[in-house]
Fold this protein.
Amino acid sequence: MEFHHLSLFCLLCALSRVSAEAEVENLSGLSPNPDRDIFVVRENGSTCLMAEFAVKFLIPYDVLALNGIDLITEQTSLSIPRGAEIAGKCGARESELHISWINRAFTFRIFFSKENRIMGSDGKESEVWKINKVQLVYDTSEMTHFVNAYNPGKHTASTHRLSALVTPAGRSYVCTAQQTLTLISTDHQKGITVSLYDIQVQAFDIQSDFMFSEPYKCITDQREQLEQTLPLVLGLILGLIIVITISVYHFHLKLTAQQPQLPRDRSLYKNVM
């Protein structure tokens, strides 16, 4: 009897873990930008990871030359299609997002982690989250993108010692500018280029369901915003200087007009005296 209850308990635990991992949603169809994808991972009925971004992959592969001897490197460009399968999991210190498409010919994995590091000039240590690994599994036997690939098969491309999208804990990372990562492939150490842009991601500490926390803008966006704002500020300052100059000049003319005017003819000075 005890064994039966124990087995039932273990089964319920296993089912709860499966259901937690299965709480994933691809909401890319809701995005007004056809290139931007929206992915959500939920556990215990609440959102624990959200990611919105557009991504392009540039993958080199070998084809046989016309002489039948030499190899030529071609490149294929692709993005994540609508309806991609997703999986993920959330933890206190580590989270993951897995995206697969075309019958798992491609799987894009993003790994997140939390850590403490010194932020700012005060030297104080604070908690941040970041992307610590990106991985792409791809199959060159998929003929739509890899035309006439030589020795086709599955390959894995990964980053090395990555620390990207570093964000203060409790905030979401926002960046419209392009972020480029290079992954090294098991296919003769070829370099895979992953370009992410129009990004908003939060991997931990989401307070409201399906809603990002306070945004943390990337340095590039902050610089671009400053470059856009600076001409306006300078224009306002210049306009203010012009207004002040005209006002002072007008006041000077008014003050001068109120003073008694001395005649230019010296013979008239006696009348003035």
Residues 1-20 have pLDDT under 50 and may be disordered.
